């Protein structure tokens, strides 16, 4: 029996609808319109596309947003100056510096300069630290979106063996920490596999829930998972395809055709994890505007 498709577009739209309802309520009751500032450095096409989509999402939510587009040669000090300006701007509740940054800029310094209470990406060391110990925080958007996908698709990770293939600071490490917490929507047994493993399939075949986030096109195949596993494909890769007008097609880190015949549920690429990331950016912006995470007792 073919796997059930976990529709990330539909779940993302549900989250966006909930976010808009809460944002409208915040504006009506407290006169606060959530505000998000984007900082885009350079001409990376993927980064430009992401910022454009996030800006469109703000418009749909009725959020206030501003985008600062800077040339690739912009100095680190100039970006820090801009962040400081947004840190002190009461109309701006969230700040998002689109990664990656040009090589001459230290990403850690930039991320650490953002007020952690406005860190909608969830990458500030304070938010990462709070996430690790299980305290309330702004969570990284893609991992938080993965957790929502699992919960809302009826695949509660509690007590399940979750195997994550990939150990990046953006996806692998954060989702591992989120899902192992003794909290609702988590409480999983978590294994992280990566390129240090002699045979990744040894670990992937043990997974009740497999999260593929290694950035290698279609490297997880149907013979690498156990029957009935839930598969979350985080990868977005361009592969050459002369049959298409663009000359390429988008695939995930999972070979969908073979894996969907073995799994019980699977996310497609595109239309799976991708839309969730933008939805979670918007939700994090709302949380910043509500100012409840770090003030509640």
Please provide a written account of the structure.
The chain is globular. The protein is built from ten helices and eleven strands. Helix 1 (8-30) packs parallel to helix 10 (273-290), helix 2 packs across helix 10 and helix 6 crosses helix 7 (172-180). The chain folds into two domains: 29-115, Leucine Dehydrogenase, chain A, domain 1 (Rossmann fold, 3-Layer(aba) Sandwich); 141-274, Rossmann fold (3-Layer(aba) Sandwich). With 297 residues, it is of the alpha/beta class.
Q: Largest sheet, described in full?
A: 6 strands, parallel
Q: Percent of residues in helical segments?
A: 25-40%
Low-pLDDT stretches: none
Main β-sheet, spatial strand arrangement: 1-11-8-7-5-6
Number of domains: 2
Which radius of gyration do the C-alpha atoms yield? 19 Å
CATH topology of the largest domain: Rossmann fold
Q: Which terms summarize this structure?
A:
single chain, about 300 residues, alpha/beta, Rossmann fold, 2 domains, six-stranded parallel sheet
How would you concisely characterize the structure shown here?
The chain is of the alpha/beta class and 297 residues long.
List the helices and strands and how they pair.
Layout: E1 4-5, H1 8-30, E2 35-41, H2 45-61, E3 64-70, H3 76-87, E4 94-97, H4 107-113, H5 125-133, H6 141-152, E5 161-165, H7 172-180, E6 189-193, H8 200-204, E7 209-212, E8 230-233, E9 237-240, E10 248-251, H9 256-259, E11 265-266, H10 273-290
Parallel strand pairs: 1-11, 2-3, 2-4, 5-6, 5-7, 7-8, 8-11
Antiparallel strand pairs: 9-10
Helix pairs in contact: 1-10, 2-10, 6-7, 6-10
